[in-house]
Amino acid sequence: MLVAAGVMTEAQVDRVLELQRHPDEKGRFGEISIRLGFAKKEQVDEVLARQFGSASEVDLSKSRLPATIVTAFRNVLPFAESIRALRSQLMMRWFDGTPGQSTLAVTSVDRGDGKSFVTANLAVAFSQLGEKTLVIDADMRHPTQHEIFGLRNPLGLSGVLSGRADLNEVRMIDGLGNLSVLPAGALPPNPQELLSRPEFGRLLNEMSSVFDVILVDTPSAQEASDAHVVAQRARAVLMVGRKDKTRAAEIKQLGAVFSSSGVSVLGATLNEY
Fold first, then answer.
1. Is-contact 39 33, C-beta < 8 A?
2. What is the pLDDT of residues 81-113, one digit of tens each?
């Protein structure tokens, strides 16, 4: 695999194999290759990830996705590892196959905390696990998911909820076969009213019969009460805080508000990227 990727030559592979046969050599193939300067650690890690069936990566040179989708391009980086750890926690706490537990709202205390960034990368992580995953951009005040995934944003969610569009607005993401996105669409004057309509609940119910995981990106909680409306529809929420910015008391207070309205608060994650 290292030869096919152009990282090592056949002669270098033979040299490493020769050293491995030496009785005093206890290193693994990758360790020896790194020590001899034939390969870099991240190159070996990427090959090992593929060899053992870990999440596949997208070729950055052939994709139109921006590099902010870190999990798709560099799944050996610490951020990608953290996203996969968060994915594991969510699978234990919510996405465990229980009927009615396929939708999760993702929000933050304030704008700029990185909730949309975390949502997008978390969605990629779920899709790489083989879960059919949908991102719904319900932030119809400052939508970003269409920008993150490089999509056009003509009608989207606002068009579906207002009856001007259908589910053809759901777009599959090239290179990530299990991932789809429903952009926010045109900014309406009444986003909270649109989200409060029965159509939004019916949309989530219909999508839950198609997708294993639905992540709904919401406006920040301080910006609007849209997040509370979405969380009640989803029945569960994940809060994103920003390192050195979000106060613990703010997260605690926000969680208490969600809990008091019957929403399952799965926890909070700290974003430092």
1. yes
2. 899 899 999 999 999 989 999 999 999 999 889
3-state secondary structure 122-175: HHHHHHHCCCCEEEEECCCCCCCHHHHCCCCCCCHHHHHHCCCCCHHHCEEECC
Tell me the CATH number of domain 60-271, given options 3.40.50.300, 1.10.520.10, 3.90.460.10, 2.60.40.10.
Answer: 3.40.50.300
Place of tokens 């944003």: 153
Show me where the domains of the chain are located. Answer: 10-51, 60-271
Phi/psi of residue 266, each to 5°? -75, -20
pLDDT of residue 55: 47
Q: If you average pLDDT over residues 122-129, what whole number do you get?
A: 91
**Amino acid 148: pLDDT:** 92
Question: Pairing between strand 176-182 and 264-271?
Answer: unpaired
Per-residue pLDDT of 171-198, as tens digits, reads 999 878 899 999 999 999 999 999 999 9
